[in-house]
From TrEMBL:
<dbReference type="InterPro" id="IPR018939">
    <property type="entry name" value="Autophagy-rel_prot_27"/>
</dbReference>
<dbReference type="Pfam" id="PF09451">
    <property type="entry name" value="ATG27"/>
</dbReference>
<feature type="transmembrane region" description="Helical">
    <location>
        <begin position="179"/>
        <end position="202"/>
    </location>
</feature>
<dbReference type="GO" id="GO:0005802">
    <property type="term" value="C:trans-Golgi network"/>
</dbReference>
<keyword id="KW-0812">Transmembrane</keyword>
<keyword id="KW-0732">Signal</keyword>
<feature type="signal peptide">
    <location>
        <begin position="1"/>
        <end position="25"/>
    </location>
</feature>
<protein>
    <recommendedName>
        <fullName>Cation-dependent mannose-6-phosphate receptor</fullName>
    </recommendedName>
</protein>
<keyword id="KW-1133">Transmembrane helix</keyword>
<keyword id="KW-0472">Membrane</keyword>
<dbReference type="GO" id="GO:0000139">
    <property type="term" value="C:Golgi membrane"/>
</dbReference>
Length: 243
């Protein structure tokens, strides 16, 4: 007979492995259509949004060659004499283009999103594998150079996990709130102009009387004050006027 305490650890290990495999299967994607608005791609599970790195490019140091690599998934940036999305910086001060933003393409390899770039002179290629690790801190690592002038990187963390919400557009279109505010201001201007025109042209009013509904607007502050006081006192007066 097998004792329960000898089987329990085995069952626990099997459960953990099953849950881990299930989690990895849920994190894997089948398609990755490049999206410039997300600086990433659209998957069947949502968007991989890397726009957070637009203002601060990712950086990694190759510990073997002591070479720096910088990558901005959203746009080309300038370093020294080079302007590109992926820049290789040597310790002697030289920089090399290792992938322009305009050449960025996305694909899927082993369930992970992959972003590929080619330098402007077509001499260097970079591939960034985006590995989803839910709620994990983003980590950008250099995988190696294989073959020569083909640079591999891995970005792992929560940023590589698809989001159900689509990225906000980078266009400068007005928001609904801005449209409502502009419409309100236009109505106010039209109300004043038309009202003044009627008061002067039809009623021959002069001075402050030429403003439309001047008596109402003059009394409005007092009405607001009374309303606030009534609300704060719940309609009760603390004292009465003498008769």
């Amino acid at each position: 007979m097998t004792l329960w305490w000898t089987t329990t650890p085995m069952v626990t290990a099997v459960c953990i492995l099953s849950l881990t495999s299930l989690s990895r299967a849920q994190e894997q994607i089948q398609k990755c259509t490049y999206s410039s608005e997300a600086c990433g791609c659209e998957t069947e599970k949502g968007y991989i949004n890397l726009k957070k790195f637009e203002s601060k490019p990712l950086y990694v140091l190759d510990p073997v060659q002591y070479t720096e690599y910088h990558w901005n998934p959203c746009k080309d940036f300038k370093m020294g004499k080079i302007e590109s999305a992926c820049i290789q910086h040597l310790l002697n001060g030289d920089e090399y283009d290792c992938g322009s933003h305009s050449s960025t393409k996305s694909s899927v390899e082993q369930g992970n999103a992959v972003f590929s770039m080619v330098s402007s002179d077509r001499k260097r290629t970079s591939k960034v594998t985006c590995v989803c690790k839910k709620y994990a801190v983003d980590d950008f690592a250099f995988s190696g150079e294989y073959p020569s002038t083909v640079y591999g990187f891995q970005l792992s963390g929560d940023s590589c996990c698809p989001e159900a919400v689509p990225p906000s557009s980078s266009s400068t279109g007005l928001s609904p709130g801005s449209i409502l505010l502009i419409a309100f201001l236009v109505l106010v201007v039209v109300y004043i102009l038309v009202g003044v025109g009627i008061q002067i042209g039809v009623r021959k009013a002069k001075g402050i009387e030429s403003l439309p509904n001047v008596s109402f607007w003059s009394a409005l502050p007092g009405l607001i004050k009374d309303g606030v006081g009534f609300t704060l006192t719940c309609g009760k007066k603390s004292e009465y006027n003498k008769i």
